[in-house]
Every structure is written in C-alpha cells, then in structure tokens.
Amino acid sequence: MKIYTRTGDAGQTGVIGGRVDKDDIRVTAYGTTDEVNAFVSEAIVRMDSEKHADMIQDLTEIQHELFDAGGDLAQAGKKRQYKVTAEMVSRLEEWIDRYDAEAPAIQRFILPGGSPISSALHVCRVVTRRAERLTVTLSREQETNDEVRRYLNRLSDFFFAIARAANARDGVSDTEYKRGGQVFR
Questions:
Q1: Which residues, other chains included, contact 63 with Cβ-Cβ below 8 Å and sequence gap of 6+?
Q2: Domain at 141, CATH number
Q3: Of 30, 111, 118, 149, which is the most exposed, with the fewest CB atoms less than 10 Å away?
C-alpha cells in the first residue's frame, strides 16, 4: 500500500460519512487532537522508564484515547458508535486527583515550565485547550459526541496536574506568576 493517495490534492479529505474541505472545522478539531497526541509522545520520550513508569502508562493510554476522540470527531453523517465515554472522563478525574496529591499546594497561578518533562506536558495542556475550543465550535455547528468535549476539558486539567507532579518528582519548583494575587485557597 502506498502512503500517498493523491485524493487530497484538490483540498478535500475523507471523513466518516463523506468528503469535506481540509480546513473544515471538523478536520481542524480532530487534527488538533492529533497534534496533542504528537506532543504527548514528546513528553513520554523525556521520561525515565522507572521513575515515571506510571506516567508513561497513563499517557500511552491517553494517546489511544486521543485516536478514539479523533475518530469520534471525524464522523460526519454516517453514524457509528462513539468511543469516548463518560467513564473515560471519570477516570481522568481520578488520575488528576492522584497526580495533584504529589505536588505542593498552590495559591497563585503558575508559569508553564520547570523540568523538561513538565514543559512538554504544559504544551500538551495548551494544545488540548485549543482542541477543546475547536470542538465547542464544531458542536455548535454539527452533531458531535459531547463526551469528547468533556474529555478534552478534563484532559487539559490532567496535563496541568501531571506537569506539576513531574516537577515535584524531579525536585523542580513551580514558578508562581508574581504579578497576580492569591487565587487558590
């Protein structure tokens, strides 16, 4: 099988249920989930296989789920069973709580960064927020799986929590935003 098909040369691509322009909001939304997935791999390769084994395992599961989310977002017209579920969102909440417990309490906003791992995870967080915004726009215009929007919302929180946990494991302090006041109590 050849990698190139030439079917997209005119600016359209296939989605589940037909063909759309490559800049269609649906393609932009699922394409951005693919970007998140690529950035997750960047975070994983920075991790120590022993020290960060649980993080690698959770992030690898998230990579599979991001493919599921992309597939759900790619459905235009022809319907099949969605893959992203409320249970996946609930599990993310459990993971958030677990990683949040590893990091010191915060009272102010923090700047993205710290260790190389944390920095990579913060990139995952902000690209996930963009994917979420695009998914919100898509859901106003076309039918989508609402659980994908919830999943992306929770996933960005997960990346925040795991980024802070990565800093804590590596003995790196978060940098507080010094021009802001206390926002967390």
A1: 37, 40, 41
A2: 1.20.1200.10
A3: 111
Per the rule left: phi > 0, alpha: psi between -120 and 50, beta: everything else, 146 is alpha
Q: Supply the pTM of this predicted model.
A: 0.93
Q: What is the residue whose two structure tokens read 């963009």?
A: 130
Handedness of CA 59, 26, 12, 78 (dihedral sign): positive
Can you spell out the DSSP letters for 135-175?
A: HHHHHHHS---HHHHHHHHHHHHHHHHHHHHHHHHTT-PPE
Residue 2 has pLDDT above 90, yes or no: no
Mean pLDDT of the chain: 92
Name residues whose C-beta falls within 8 Å of residue 140's C-beta, 6 or more positions apart in sequence. Answer: none
- Distance of alpha carbon 59 from alpha carbon 75, whole angstroms: 25
Give the amino acid at 50: E
Position 173, amino acid:
S
User: pLDDT tens-digit profile of 132-161?
Assistant: 999 999 999 998 999 999 999 999 999 999
Q: How far is CA 41 from the centre of its chain?
A: 11
